[in-house]
Design a protein that fits this description.
Length: 437
């Protein structure tokens, strides 16, 4: 059979790998000049700068782990401890381990009563039913009772633990207020938090996609070739890219949801089109600041998470010293600081203000260096990260049964932004296509 995959992010690459592993002819079209989507790296002078993703999460990324083992690359992942600290409004710093939730309980700002309440809620959550797979929208939809993460946390953990544990973690991971998030995904992640181990491929998370492409035998990869049009033709499809028409027996659509909606508009129902078009993504920005000589080689943490009790939305959710996370990203002796923003203030900031705010935060956090950085690069996406509000999983999951035969959707938007969500959905879409064949 001849299959086409549209979009070469981790979802498309996982789909292409699965289809070609099963002996089918596969063409993949990617609009950019490289695979990886929001995990790509770009070169700025001597620096290799990530446009998005930072790390993989070990035990809670089972399908990514399985495919990397299958392709023989899992052993190349470099573990990263992600030594972290919370930075309070008054400048106080509290060391925590990003991957060990229990370490947050040592925070001096928490009272004994807070610690007890969080511990009891943790045990109760661990023992209660929840989504087994945090990246499967169908599983998540079963546990979506309409409650949002802020309400759940304040009620079950208390106000201070909400401010010093839940908010800093989710400001960094999803960059929106917890009141915008439904609970099944974060609860499932918290239930599996003991399996979380951070790691980074030596060349950055983009290598997940590159390795899958390399392992896809006979894959015909078309880079810099955006798909312009798809139409149904008999039992198959015709895909137009750069003016050329390609025939396929089946398709995996692995672009962002809003792009998929436009490409399929002519042959899906208005209801499906609107669900895809309106799948919620948020404004997102990060700033990367490169120094050829590292001004802070001895700083004790790799990640700094700003916190503050009762403050409104903070503009910055996290700062990451990238030389610790991915040494190959910086020239020897250099440093690259990633400043990751949070959405509500961003919506009212222009790129110059974002840049200045990032520099101010970095100087306040690590100290102002004697010399200026080599570059300050803003990555600003009007639709950067998908988020799941209460009700979103169920609504998006129904899309899978609403499309015509032999075309399946893949993308992280069925769960919550993350490489595992993309890989899981890509593999599933390919398997569904194979099941139809
Ligand atoms: C700043 C940031 C930080 C992140 N940090 C992490 C992290 O630390 N860990 C983690 O696991 N995840 C992280 N993520 C999320 C992760 O990057 C995404 O979940 C993942 O890239 C989604 O994969 P995808 O294949 O679904 O979509 P994408 O990566 O967006 O890929 C979609 C692809 O489709 C292509 N495309 C679009 N239109 C067309 C067309 N018409 N024709 C052909 N191709 C087309 C695009 O060019 C793109 O390559 C982060 C994201 C951002 C933005």
């Amino acid at each position: 059979m001849k299959y086409i995959v549209v979009g070469g992010g981790p979802a498309g690459c996982a789909a292409a790998y699965t289809l070609s592993k099963n002996g089918h002819q596969v063409k993949m079209f990617e609009a950019e000049n490289a695979v990886g989507g929001r995990t790509r790296q770009i070169q700025i002078g001597k620096f290799s700068v990530g446009v998005g993703a930072l790390f993989l999460m070990g035990g809670i990324y089972p399908r990514t782990t399985a495919l990397l083992k299958e392709t023989g690359h899992h052993c190349q992942l470099i573990p990263w401890r992600g030594t972290s600290e919370l930075m309070d409004n008054d400048g106080s710093r509290y060391p925590v381990s990003f991957v060990n939730l229990a370490s947050y309980l040592r925070m001096p700002k928490l009272t004994m009563a807070d610690r007890l309440k969080v511990s009891l809620a943790g045990v109760k959550l661990f023992l209660s039913p929840g989504a087994k797979n945090p990246f499967d929208g169908e599983d998540l939809a079963r546990y979506d009772d309409g409650e949002d993460l802020e309400s759940w946390s304040r009620k079950n953990l208390g106000d201070r633990p909400y401010e010093y544990i839940i908010r800093p973690l989710f400001d960094f991971l999803y960059a929106v207020p917890p009141s915008w998030l439904s609970t099944p995904f974060p609860k499932a992640i918290i239930q599996q938090a003991h399996k979380m181990r951070l790691s980074v491929p030596p060349g950055g998370p983009v290598q997940v996609s590159e390795w899958l492409v390399e392992a896809s035998k006979d894959l015909e990869l078309h880079l810099s070739t955006p798909v312009e049009r798809i139409c149904e033709c008999g039992t198959g499809f015709e895909v137009t890219a750069r003016g050329e028409v390609h025939k396929a027996d089946g398709i995996v659509m692995a672009t962002e949801a809003y792009t998929a909606s436009e490409l399929m508009k002519d042959f899906i129902s208005t209801e499906s089109y609107e669900k895809l078009r309106d799948a919620p993504y948020t404004d997102y920005a990060h700033v990367q600041i490169g120094y050829e000589t590292n001004p802070w080689p001895d700083y004790p943490s790799d990640i700094v998470l700003p916190v503050g009790f009762g403050e409104g939305p903070r503009s910055v959710g996290a700062m990451v010293l990238q030389s610790r996370r991915q040494p190959s990203a910086v020239p020897e002796g250099g440093e690259l600081v990633g400043v990751y923003f949070t959405t509500p203030p961003l919506e009212h900031m222009n790129d110059e203000e974002i840049k200045q705010d990032a520099l101010d935060y970095v100087h306040r956090t690590f100290g102002k260096p004697a010399s200026s950085p080599q570059f300050v690069k803003v990555f600003h996406y009007k639709k950067g990260l998908n988020i799941a509000k209460p009700g979103a999983y169920g609504s998006l999951d129904t899309l899978r049964s609403e499309l015509p035969r032999n075309i399946y959707l893949a993308g992280d938007y069925f769960s919550q932004a993350g490489v595992e969500a993309a890989v899981f959905s890509g593999e599933r879409a390919a398997n569904q296509l194979l099941g139809q064949a």
